């Protein structure tokens, strides 16, 4: 199997003109980013800047509620509020070492944009963030944050004006200025080597979780993470892929239900295709046109998925399920009431799966849920949802 593939998924489906940039990136990744010097600096930033390691917290009241031992990996406690900072720091540091002057990024919820703008400020790099106009409106506070951090926010008015269009525009901008610009991709997606590199920079979540479980003399029976492009999930899965006794579960956005057209449940409803430089499973119509997606959470609102997840799905190493907007909001409320932790609506999809899984399990199981981010950014969405105005 070619090295750029995970099973039959992955590859590099990009215009010829961008090939040399991917080669340059591949070389830099395997030389610079694998060097001891880079790793020391990266680890230092993760620790003293981002605030790692994040705790593996025993959620006692959720455990009582569900009758199993529930542990929360607290990525919500990272600087800027989610796991995305791990990857943004890794890629921005690599860009700097490669001598690039500017980094660009796409963003949906604004979380990756904020993380990238933060890393750019820290490392003294120029930064342009591409954002769909609808998302920019939905996430006005994040737009303001990025500007305050010194980034330029480029609003995209094509199509549905959300993440897919922003990504296409960012790829275009990258191709236009390919020698000077480093494209910081926000999830484990895109052409090789991005999915591999993003997994690497997010694998700290899995490594810490593994060590923390060992320290508590525990063995995880289940690990659950939400899946948009799949970076927080592959980050926590990475340390457990070889241990078949650990069940890995990815949770997709079921929106208004996977039987309606309003969802972003890629693995549940999609089939193989090409999107954003990779072969992966994609939500598409019978002519192969990419379908519009819906989720209450901007971070999961993506019609594709990282190629390694497509492979884990078809090879059945991991299982993927969809959670609706309603189920997600109920889980957000429950976690907040029982634990005093307001999870991001993305992460609430993973928490909501407990409701389905726990009643089917016998004995007492140890279940780790990756709380990919905090919910502060989502309070407007939750308020509007309660008023019933979110679907316009
Ligand atoms: C962006 C985001 C996600 C989805 O991205 P993945 O690459 O699938 O992890 C999940 N949770 C939060 C909090 C996010 O900001």
Automatic annotation (TrEMBL):
Tell me the route in metabolism or biology where this protein functions: Amino-acid biosynthesis; L-tryptophan biosynthesis; L-tryptophan from chorismate: step 5/5
Q: Which cofactor does it need?
A: pyridoxal 5'-phosphate
Q: Does the keyword Transcription apply?
A: no
| Alphabetized GO MF terms | tryptophan synthase activity
> What EC number(s) does the entry state?
4.2.1.20
Q: Start and end of every Tryptophan synthase beta chain-like PALP domain?
A: 50-373
Lineage, top-rank taxon, reads Bacteria
Q: What are the entry keywords?
A: Amino-acid biosynthesis, Aromatic amino acid biosynthesis, Lyase, Pyridoxal phosphate, Tryptophan biosynthesis
Q: Does the keyword Amino-acid biosynthesis apply?
A: yes
Q: Name one GO cellular component term.
A: cytoplasm
Query: Which reactions fall under this protein's catalytic activity?
Result: (1S,2R)-1-C-(indol-3-yl)glycerol 3-phosphate + L-serine = D-glyceraldehyde 3-phosphate + L-tryptophan + H2O
Residues modified as N6-(pyridoxal phosphate)lysine are 84
Give the family from UniProt.
Belongs to the TrpB family.
* Its biological purpose: The beta subunit is responsible for the synthesis of L-tryptophan from indole and L-serine.
Q: How does it assemble?
A: Tetramer of two alpha and two beta chains.
Q: What is this protein called?
A: Tryptophan synthase beta chain
Source organism of this protein record = Campylobacter geochelonis
């Amino acid at each position: 199997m070619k090295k750029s593939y995970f099973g039959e998924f992955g590859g590099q489906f990009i215009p010829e003109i961008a090939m040399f940039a991917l080669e340059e990136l591949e070389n830099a990744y395997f030389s610079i980013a694998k060097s001891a010097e880079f790793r020391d600096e990266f680890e230092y930033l993760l620790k003293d800047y981002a605030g790692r390691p994040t705790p593996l917290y025993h959620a006692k009241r959720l455990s009582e509620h569900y009758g199993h031992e529930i542990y929360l990996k607290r990525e919500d406690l990272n600087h800027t509020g989610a796991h995305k900072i791990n990857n943004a720091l890794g890629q921005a540091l690599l860009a700097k070492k490669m001598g690039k002057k500017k980094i660009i990024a796409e963003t949906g919820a604004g979380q990756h944009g904020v993380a990238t703008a933060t890393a750019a400020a820290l490392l003294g790099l120029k930064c342009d963030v591409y954002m769909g106009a609808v998302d920019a409106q939905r996430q006005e506070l994040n737009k303001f944050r990025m500007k305050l951090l010194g980034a330029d926010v480029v609003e995209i008015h094509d199509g549905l004006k959300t993440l897919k269009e922003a990504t296409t525009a960012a790829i275009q901008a990258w191709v236009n200025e390919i020698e000077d610009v480093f494209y910081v991709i926000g999830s484990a997606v895109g052409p090789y080597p991005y999915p591999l590199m993003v997994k690497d920079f997010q694998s700290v979540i899995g490594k810490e979780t593994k060590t923390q479980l060992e320290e508590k003399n525990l063995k995880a029976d289940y690990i659950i993470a939400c899946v948009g492009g799949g970076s927080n999930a592959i980050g926590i899965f990475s340390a457990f892929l070889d241990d078949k006794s650990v069940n890995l579960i990815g949770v997709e956005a079921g929106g208004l239900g996977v039987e309606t057209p309003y969802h972003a449940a890629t693995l549940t409803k999609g089939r193989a295709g090409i999107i954003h430089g990779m072969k992966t499973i994609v939500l598409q119509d019978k002519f192969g046109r990419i379908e519009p997606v819906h989720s209450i959470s901007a971070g999961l609102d993506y019609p594709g998925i990282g190629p390694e997840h497509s492979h884990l799905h078809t090879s059945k190493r991991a299982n993927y399920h969809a959670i609706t907007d309603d189920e997600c909001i109920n889980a957000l409320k429950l976690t907040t009431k029982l634990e005093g932790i307001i999870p991001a609506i993305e992460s609430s999809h993973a928490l909501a799966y407990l409701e389905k899984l726990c009643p089917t399990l016998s004995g007492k199981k140890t279940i780790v849920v990756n709380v990919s981010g905090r919910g502060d950014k989502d309070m407007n969405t939750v308020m509007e949802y309660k008023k019933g105005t979110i679907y316009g």
